[in-house]
Amino acid sequence: MKNLSAWLYYAKSLLEILVWFKNWPSLIPLFLCRSRTSIKKLKLRRPTLEVMVRSAMDVWSVKETFVDQFYTRYGAPVEEGWTVVDIGAGIGDYSLYAAHGNRSGVIYAYEPFHESYALLKCNLALNGIENVHTRQQAVWGSAGEVQLDLSSGEPLQISSSERVGRNRVAGKTCVEAVILLDLLREERIEKIDLLKLDCEGAEYEIFFKAPADVFGKIERVIMEFHDLDETRNHRALIRFFREQGYAVICHPNLVHGEIGYLFAYRS
């Protein structure tokens, strides 16, 4: 049944790409070639935005945000005037989505990878978005530097700048890491109306090590969760957020059993 659901989802998705993306023929090379050959401009029909993409995964991410609207369907629609924090902003698809109908609000976008961050900045400028503040930083469980795998995009370890300097690994990159508490302080945020995360399993470090009073300033959390092991999975996240006073709803991914969407909100 899972395989059937996956095939139906992919078939529906391909049709949606034809309908929603004006210039879908120019995107075909991204799906045929696994190596990144060039950056393409994706043109959305509705809303009329343009997004620079470098891979099929980027195209799929834009589709999930603007066409499937997973973060709205499984979370909450962004309201005018909201403060939104986007952790794992990637190329900026969700930040664009949140800012487009929220011109009086403020979005803070955090993306550690240089290539993704460059596209994030480019896409905001391309669409004239001025209410998104970007930071090339990782959000983590402790401050310092986080070492990232350039091929997989997964945070591997975090330590002080001195220790990372002694243990740099070929094929990895190090970026500055901040904790949730410092994020709130540095940006002078009194309340986060919506916190969005897609950070490849880093959600456990970010949340489980955050002081309890941080959550008093967060109204809603929508995330793509990643089940990693017996102690780091969506069941642990559900328990954790309920302990912080949130109501929690989970939705499984239609294709991948180890990921899904979790929405935590103040009831």
Automatic annotation (TrEMBL):
Pfam families: Methyltransf_21. PANTHER family: METHYLTRANSFERASE, FKBM FAMILY PROTEIN, SLL1173 PROTEIN. The keyword Transferase applies. Gene3D superfamilies: Vaccinia Virus protein VP39 (3.40.50.150). The keyword Methyltransferase applies. GO terms for biological process: methylation. Residues 86-246 form the Methyltransferase FkbM domain. It comes from Candidatus Brevifilum fermentans. It comes from the Bacteria. GO terms for molecular function: methyltransferase activity. This is Putative Methyltransferase FkbM family. Keywords: Methyltransferase, Transferase.
